[in-house]
Design brief:
- By secondary structure, the protein is an alpha+beta fold.
- 61% of the residues lie in helices and 9% in strands.
- The strands form 2 sheets. The protein has a 5-stranded mixed beta sheet with strand order 2-4-5-7-6, covered by helices on one side. It has a two-stranded antiparallel sheet with strand order 1-3.
- Mean pLDDT is 76; it is low at 1-23, 281-285 and 380-391.
């Protein structure tokens, strides 16, 4: 669809792929700890039973299984906590890491202390703290785990000798298994963290691009507001002179017809300037209209500007339609889409609207030459026009208008020729207060 340089078009960034670690590192750490703790509980129980029953090395089962059971009960409480609306704090995440480190140290105390090949798992809470919490919290966790390691050197229950097995070889195999488990945990966590960092970089790049675009649109809006203010005086003068000429030359039919047309167009320009001024400070508590009536009004106002275009409109949705506050910015965005379609195919423009309880969708269809590949890939990514005299402002302006309401615009080619612009916005931003 060729773009009208005076019309706005959109595409709302809808990338929501970032996880909790991107939006809230503490909450992301809490969720990861939840799943890691289940793995830890299962691994502890399996290892205890394997060593005790499989290798014939009697362990104090009661306290060790009790520690694993307490961790499981704690994780059930964490599952309930994660469903609550309040955000996780860094202190809360640190406390969870401290509990896990203490539980691991207690298990090591009952199973050989610093001679246990799994003692290096005390590094895992330090790694998690360093990647998701402030530096002070990471250093404090390192101090706590180092202190626990030191205490395990002097205070622990020795591992019983394995029946019929070489103790040193068994220790080496345990170190190998511990290395494999630790490497898998570190790789899994670090790769997830790297994905979150890449998502953060994408989000920051999009935010910078949006800030630059919004800065340009703000400057354009200020120029438009200034132009509206400056033009009001000369338009008033033109209207006054036109009325004087009508009074002086009203008897001349040919001249009177031209003066009447001039007066009507002058009044229309004044009305447009008034609408621009009102849109800059539109009140959210103003008049309300049924949604279908407001949509039809946007089409009727546009037909006054483009009477030569044959356009059909159709609205579908539950009746009575919800009451909305007329949004002049969105109305201008819709008019821009109507203009785009009319420029592409003046003889065949179809406007379709539909709504449900949450969303309004308006589709503008034309039978023109089709959609440029640049717009199909990234509508609204920058100023782009298919017209030699256009500057592509329309695309950026509609993007800003729809983005402000949390909506999006999709541009697509139609089968058989032509293109379709589908604008969708949440009704929550338009719905009138009850």
């Amino acid at each position: 669809m060729p773009l009208n340089p005076d019309s706005p078009v959109n595409a709302l960034p809808t990338d929501r792929r970032t996880g909790d670690a991107l939006a809230d590192p503490a909450a992301g750490l809490l969720r990861r700890l939840f799943w890691l703790r289940w793995l830890g509980v299962a691994g502890q129980v399996l290892a205890i039973l394997l060593v005790h029953a499989g290798l014939g090395m009697p362990l104090p089962l009661a306290p060790m299984l009790a520690i694993a059971g307490l961790l499981a009960l704690m994780n059930l409480a964490v599952a309930l906590r994660l469903g609550q609306p309040w955000p996780a704090s860094e202190a809360e995440a640190f406390a969870h890491l401290g509990v896990d480190a203490a539980a691991l140290a207690a298990q090591l105390y009952f199973s050989g202390g610093y001679t246990n090949p799994f003692v290096s798992l005390l590094l895992l809470p330090v790694i998690l703290a360093a990647t998701a919490l402030p530096a002070a919290a990471a250093w404090l966790m390192a101090l706590l785990t180092a202190s626990a390691y030191t205490l395990l050197v002097f205070f622990h229950l020795p591992l019983p000798a394995p029946a019929g097995l070489d103790a040193f070889d068994l220790h080496l195999w345990g170190m190998w298994f511990n290395f494999a488990v630790s490497a898998a945990l570190v790789v899994g966590f670090v790769t997830r963290l790297a994905a979150s960092l890449r998502a953060r970089e994408r989000q920051l790049a999009e935010a910078r691009e949006k800030a630059l675009r919004d800065e340009g649109l703000f400057a354009l809006g200020m120029l438009a507001a200034g132009a509206a203010h400056e033009l009001s005086t000369p338009l008033g003068t033109v209207a006054l002179v036109t009325r004087e000429l009508e009074a002086d030359y009203g008897d001349d039919p040919e001249l009177a017809e031209s003066l009447a047309l001039l007066g009507a167009q002058t009044e229309r320009c004044k009305a447009l300037l008034t609408r621009m001024t009102a849109a800059a400070g539109v009140s959210r508590g103003g008049e309300t209209l049924p949604l279908d009536e407001w949509l039809e009004k946007t089409v009727e106002d546009w037909r006054l500007m483009r009477p030569e275009v044959a356009a059909a409109s159709r609205w579908e949705g539950a009746r009575p339609a919800p009451a909305v506050r007329p949004d002049p910015v969105l109305a201008q965005a819709l008019v821009s889409l109507y203009n785009n379609a009319a420029d592409a195919s003046p003889g065949a423009v179809a406007i379709e609207g539909a709504w449900d309880a949450q969303h309004l969708t308006v589709r503008v269809l034309d039978s023109g030459p089709g959609l440029p590949a640049e717009l199909a890939r990234a509508p609204g990514a920058g100023f782009f026009s298919t017209k030699g005299e256009g500057r592509g402002l329309g695309l950026a302006l509609v993007q800003a208008a729809v983005e402000r309401l949390g909506g999006r615009l999709a541009l697509a080619a139609r089968e058989g020729g032509g293109s379709a612009a589908s604008l969708s916005v949440p009704l929550a931003g338009l719905r009138a207060a009850p």
